[in-house]
């Protein structure tokens, strides 16, 4: 969650604070820049859409992965391993 939250904050921060001169250094002129820098809300709206798309992509791919792992019984350890502790049963400590 922390990586996703930090990435989302980075996208939002860019949509809010991107300076016109920096945007124009990287992209052609006429591109939107940060809301608080006088660029309007277009860049912020694009960044929010990116966050939503990334969130849905991760949900779609991870749902399939965890469904497959559940069907293969690979999500949980056995009850005996759980009661003894993973260090004792898996690492032999």
Walkthrough of the structure:
The chain is mostly helical and about 90 residues long. The chain is about 70% helix and about 0% strand. The chain has helices at about 1-15, 20-25, 40-70, 80-85, 85-90. It starts with a helix and ends with a helix.
Q: How would you summarize what this structure contains?
A:
With 93 residues, the protein is mainly α. The protein is built from five helices and no strands. Helix 1 runs antiparallel to helix 3.
Order of helices and strands: HHHHH
- What proportion of the residues is helical, as a percent range? 55-70%
C-alpha Rg, in Å? 22 Å
Largest sheet: none
Strand proportion: under 5%
Q: Outline, from the CA principal axes?
A: elongated
C-alpha termini separation: 30 Å
Class from helix and strand fractions: mainly alpha
Can you count the beta strands? Answer: 0
The low-confidence parts are: none
Integer average pLDDT: 91
Number of helical runs?
5
């Amino acid at each position: 969650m922390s990586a996703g939250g930090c990435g989302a904050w980075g996208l939002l921060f860019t949509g809010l604070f991107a300076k016109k001169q920096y945007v124009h250094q990287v992209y052609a002129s006429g591109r939107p820049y940060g809301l608080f820098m006088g660029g309007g809300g277009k860049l912020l709206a694009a960044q929010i859409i990116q966050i939503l798309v990334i969130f849905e992509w991760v949900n779609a791919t991870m749902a399939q992965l965890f469904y497959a792992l559940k069907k293969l019984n690979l999500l949980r350890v056995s009850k005996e391993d759980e009661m003894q502790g993973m260090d004792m049963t898996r690492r032999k400590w």
